[in-house]
Amino acid sequence: MAIEDMPDVGAPPVREPAPTAQVADPGPLGLAAFASTTLVLSFVNAGLIDKSVELSTVLALALFYGGLVQLLAGMWEFRAGNTFGATAFPTYGAFWMAFALYVGVLADTVPQAQQATATGMFLLVFTVVTGYLTVASLRTNTALTTVFVLLFLTFAALTTGELAGVDGLVTLGGWLGIATAAAAFYASFAGVLNATWKRTVLPVGSPR
């Protein structure tokens, strides 16, 4: 046998590239994480539960469920090719992580007379981002658009209330936040239920 006819036993076997695995929709997870943290903080802002809850339950949720889980959901949205979700979920995941750091650690470094302004400026940034995400959401579905319209109104009320020193607007923001959380829970429930049952059980409205 000629040398050139001998098999190359040292070469690794040739393997066909594996097909791209389907990525499950991370939207319901991200929406559930967002809704849960928003609901508890909104109960505080609406005056339905004591503000001391903010330094325990809210901050724990903000770090892990509202923060870390939304951040992960956003990374999976990148993998799924969803630019809207890949922008929205990391934005609000980072919001909740920054909120936990601000309220739990940094707020005490701000003079008392300037704390409302500091909080208002913190909220203003996310009001702006939520504003253009709301415009983009008009091309998604009715359920998601409802979440973003309510969220924009929530941020607008809270921001104005803090900067103008109007407690009634902060309370209004709390009630709007509760409505936002309810809409997000519905969108999350519809997403996971419809995907699991493989048919439309809960409608979310047609994409535009």
Describe the protein in words.
With 208 residues, the protein is mostly helical. It has one domain. The protein contains 6 helices and no strands. Helix 4 packs antiparallel against helix 5. About 3% of the residues have low confidence. It holds the Pfam family Gpr1_Fun34_YaaH. One of its GO terms (cellular component) is plasma membrane. It is a multi-pass membrane protein. Keywords: Membrane, Transmembrane, Transmembrane helix.
Number of helices: 6
Give the proportion of residues in helices. 55-70%
Oligomeric form: single chain
Radius of gyration over C-alpha positions, nearest whole angstrom? 23 Å
Largest sheet: none
Shape: globular
- Domain count: the total is 1
- Which regions are unreliable across 5 or more consecutive residues at pLDDT < 50? 14-20
Query: How many strand segments?
Result: 0
Percent strand: under 5%
InterPro entries: AceTr, Gpr1/Fun34/SatP-like
Pfam family, one: Gpr1_Fun34_YaaH
Transmembrane segments: 29-49, 55-76, 88-107, 113-135, 142-160, 172-193
Subcellular location: Membrane
Task: Break the fold down into its secondary structure elements and pairings.
Blueprint: H1 27-45, H2 57-80, H3 83-106, H4 115-137, H5 142-164, H6 167-197
Task: Kindly list the characteristics that best describe this protein.
208 residues, mainly alpha, 6 helices, globular
What can be said about this structure in brief?
One of its GO terms (cellular component) is plasma membrane. The protein is mainly alpha-helical and about 210 residues long.
